[in-house]
Amino acid sequence: MKPFSAQLQSLDPQTDHEQISFLLSCHVFPWDMERSLEFALFRTFAVPSISALLADTGEFVSRPRKRYDDTELILAEILEHGINSLRGTRAIRRMNSMHGRFDISNDDFLYVLSTFIFEPMRWVEKYGYRPMTETEKEGLFKNYLELGRRMNLKNMPQALAEFEAYNVRFEAEHFQYAKSNRVIADKTIDLMLGFYVPKWLYGLGRPFIFAMLDEPLRKALGIRKVSGLRKWVTRKGLGLHAFIHKISSEPQEPVLVSRRKRPTYPEGYEIEELGTFPSKVSGQ
Question: CA 42, CA 217: separation in Å to the nearest integer?
């Protein structure tokens, strides 16, 4: 077993959940964890009450890269520095301040949180070089459960299986097509493609992103069926990545999302600058 993977198995999910989440995201599965959270976004867009709010703010439509970066950076600050760290505390405060401006139901909050828990597990199960262990799953779950407490969420399921049942039930009841679903999804797809290919290749790339969406999700986003060939090519490509990952060593230095250079913040950023509204930096 690879060194960091072996280290994970000696940890206790109840007390070491922050370290488990950090090692998974920054050493063991950095590429897979980031991709899984990107695709977790699409599941939230399939819920009209969520997509309508995102469309109404105008951020995903007019400034999709900034909206994406802000979300990723706030979560990265919490993960990479720890929930109780100064930077983690500031990031949570900033996130709660943004959310507090909108009328968001507790159920919608719980569902979004559940996608951050279960989509990484499902992605790694399907596309990773190995599935997560029970220790890793439980640690990831406990860490997001603690984040949910700091977000003041109510009625959070306290067991992994119970929260997954909530996730599945919520999707069955709330996935429904709405125009705002497709608008936000299209903007996000173009944004993701822009990370890898020039704009003139977007048309070729979109079907391969569509191929990674399950049927209930595609229907709720108003996306046509995808050919079996494109699904096969996509699976083979991800399988090749998993094979290369399996025979490669884990990065000795952590892969930190917060350290990545971004056109949104060419000179770096302050946590209090992140988000959908301007705010004077507090200097904390």
Answer: 8
